[in-house]
Write a structure and sequence with these properties.
CATH topology: Spore Coat Polysaccharide Biosynthesis Protein SpsA, Chain A
Number of helices: 10
Radius of gyration: 19 Å
Oligomer: single chain
CATH class: Alpha Beta
Distance between the termini: 46 Å
Mean pLDDT: 90
Shape: globular
């Protein structure tokens, strides 16, 4: 078993259809939609790599081969641009490919995020791991503080050795789009989770602290996912499994520092594009 203080593996559930971006996602995975000149999924892998995780697992589905192709060598393309100034465009992806190992598994049925994570159990084994939802694009707090959300969670894991989820405050009227937690604030911005509700109506939400797509999970989560009954639409929700886990073990929720863009929505995707074009694109 790996050293429990070190998280080596990060799982990317990437089997969804991306229906909010049709017709663009009819033949292209939503995770490959570009924010300026880099696909969403690459931003996520780079964030995992920055947090010290180099074993990357993808849970994919039909029509997702472009993700595997992106993290592989394109001999024809590289031959075509060899020795030209355009080679610099591939520096970032080459760095990722040189430092990470990639494993792919298919989720044969779309039965929810919890089911997708459970599908990844053979890749993870009996060790803690991270989960990134590429739809949630997280930018660093400031240029002087480059640690993005997952790196912040990884640092806290070293201290607390338990499952940790990232949260942010959302308008009360938006709680129906998120999993929402309630809990006790045990340190500034760090909450011991008492309860979680998946997509509550605003009047029923226990707080406005919404779960976003960054998790560090201990391997016990697989046991809880197996005994979590399907919820809405017959899907197994990671929120329900974490709620059960929190009854038996410590689960923390952390207000991460930085900016998150909901790139599963058109508005968030455009905001992210403008932000990265203004702040990171080398014009």
């Amino acid at each position: 078993m790996a050293n429990n203080t070190i998280i080596r593996k990060c799982l990317f559930p990437a089997a969804g259809y991306g229906t909010r971006f049709l017709p663009a996602t009819k033949a292209m995975p939503k995770e490959m939609l570009p924010i300026v000149n880099k696909p969403l999924i690459q931003y996520g892998v780079e964030e995992a790599m920055e947090a010290g995780m180099t074993q990357i697992g993808f849970i994919t589905g039909r029509g997702k081969r472009a993700i595997a192709d992106h993290f592989d060598t394109s001999f024809e393309l590289e031959h075509q641009i060899f020795g030209t100034a355009k080679e610099t465009y591939l520096e970032d992806i080459r760095k990722v490919m040189d430092h990470c190992d990639f494993v792919f598994m298919r989720q044969r049925e779309m039965l929810g995020l919890g089911h997708a994570i459970l599908t990844g159990e053979p890749m993870i084994g009996p060790e803690p791991f991270a989960v990134i939802l590429a739809d949630d694009l997280c930018a660093a707090p400031t240029e002087g503080d480059p640690t993005r959300a997952l790196g912040q969670l990884a640092a806290l894991y070293e201290r607390y050795q338990c499952s940790i989820i990232a949260i942010e405050e959302v308008p009360q009227e938006d709680t129906g789009s998120y999993g929402v937690i309630s809990g006790e604030e045990i340190a500034p911005g760090i909450f011991q989770v008492h309860d979680m509700v998946e997509k509550p109506k605003p009047e029923d939400a226990p707080s406005n602290l919404a779960i976003i797509g960054r998790y560090i999970l201990t391997p016990e989560i697989f046991e809880y996912l197996r005994k979590t009954p399907p919820g809405t639409n017959g899907e197994v929700q990671i929120t329900d499994a974490l709620k059960l886990l929190a009854q038996d073990r410590q689960v923390l929720a952390v207000k991460f520092k930085g900016q998150r863009f909901d790139c599963g929505s058109i508005d968030g995707f455009v905001q992210a594009t403008n932000y990265y074009y203004d702040n990171h694109y080398q014009k």
